Write the structure tokens for this entry.
Amino acid sequence: MLTALESVGMIILYLFMFLAFGSMLTGHMKKWKFSFSLSVFLGMLFYYSVFQLLAVPVTLLKQPLSLLSALWAATVVIVTVISVIRNRKMWYKRGRELALCSGKQKLLRLVPAVITAAMAVYVSLRQIYYLDAAYYVGNVTTSVFTNTINRYDPYTGNPLEVFAIRYLFSNYNIQDAVVCQITGIHPLIETKTIMAAVVMIVSNIVMWQICGLFYKEDTGSKVMMFVFAAVIQLFSVTYYITYSSSSFLLMRTYEGKNILASILAPGLLLLFGRIVQQPEQKANWIFLFLLSFAGPVLSTSASTLLPVGLSACLLPYMIWKKKARIMIPYLCCILPSIVIFGIYFLSTKGLFYIRAW
Amino acid sequence: MDIILKLNEAFESFMSYFNGRKESIAFLGVYFLVLIYIWFQKDKEKIQMLIPMSVFLAATVFNFFVMEYLVIPLGLDTEWYRMYWLVPVIPVTAYGAVELIRMQENKIRKCVIAALCIMCIYLCGQPVWKLGYNLQDNEYKVRDSLIEIVEIIRQDRQGDTARVLFPSEYYIYEVRQYDASILMATGRDTAMSAVRKAQNGEEIIFSENPGERVQQELAAANMCNKRVDPEVLKADLAATGTEYVVCDSKTDSEAWFEEAGCAEIGGSGQYKVLKVVF
């Protein structure tokens, strides 16, 4: 019971931290209607981007996990406090607007919330075994136990001679380790219960926002589209876990691969859609850059998938619009993935390595 | 003629990649139908958002020439499926269903069409409950027996860590998720390969590496009830620094490990925990 309460508390805390981080970006922008859900999604990207800026140097300097935990705790507290001070009136104002909408509107908005909560409970209580968890969760448990970052082999517990470059920039699991070290929560609960629910909620938030691209102010149609999307998720599961992101969403929810399939790839469509619909709003380009920066932090595969996705969206758009200057933000957006993939590629060719000790 | 044959060969190879992964391909068909609808709807924003991207992906990453001459030769085909995540099949299919419903004039027709859409979705895909649902055994989502085994080792060991040899693949990849103070003699893939070969009755070619070999020896003893020379076993346990061995009590492996210098300290279910005492 205590674990259940602790988990619910942590899920709420995560969402609040994402909101605080996201509101730092969306809070006081001109010609921008504040949205809680969009702020949570962008906040997640911002949260992991800032974490990356701290985690990579701490890892490369071979400092203990406890140092990263201290630095991250301080950063989160500072950002959250500033965000609360800066955005509290706006949150209140937007909250009141939502509270004052008609009873029918409220009831309609409750539908996605209930579906999301049900899906979150479904994945949080499920016991499922996948081989890859031996690395994803094992790395968290190992990092907490040894108080190091990526310096031990999660499979055996033996010290590594050199860093595994493939995972050096994918610090999503290390964030879990930091949270486990600060809170004392077991890594299996943090990953398979708390993060499973958080990822499910954020992925549904992204889907809700995508529904908004199709039916801007028509809440009824938006809700209907969201319900159908949820039904399709439930019916497009495959044994092979291949041609369906649903399989990952419903079975391997907490994994970086699922974040790529269910948050980053749809998030790319969402932000690209916003660029198409609001070409005057330059902030969408910044958010797209944020997505491409946070992508490889959340999943190693993002460094190959996101450049393809960005090219698929932005290159035809540039030709359609006949605006060569779109090339500049496009190149900026693919740069983080290209750099990380380049480093990984060079390391696989044996051109360099980084000693772990 | 050669070109046609070559093209046919490439196409078949491309299609074979899709075979076995086709459960959700039906949704891809619906996706294309909705794109055609969007095209005829002449909604400029939606066209800009979806159609050029889909054409780009079809012409590049989902082009069977790219697949045949680049992806498969480079050995990327096992991970290439992730590119499919870039295609927004789910929201676009959902949009198509909503548009179909919105086209209807009265509520009854809307309800009928909604029900038909759900039936189509059901027929196109595979429901999640067909894969079964296991409610968690405990808050850690690992087998209860694993927790018991780890607890026996924790109670007995002297230091902060203990190197343990596990018999079953589940324990091999789960144990370090639960407790990182348990060290393994060999990596996950090597250990599981040894276990699976033994499970499938394949001949085990013993490795030169003591870490791999000791896992193979345990697998042979546990899965195939194959006696392993106690002296070799003893040497391998010593070489790998193994402190505990978990044996399947349904076989004679426990006796052989005892001959090699191990002693039982406890057990959980069908598994016995032995301590290396030499």
Remarks:
- Chain A has one domain: 2-274+283-293+305-348.
- Chain A touches chain B through 82 residues (CB under 8 Å).
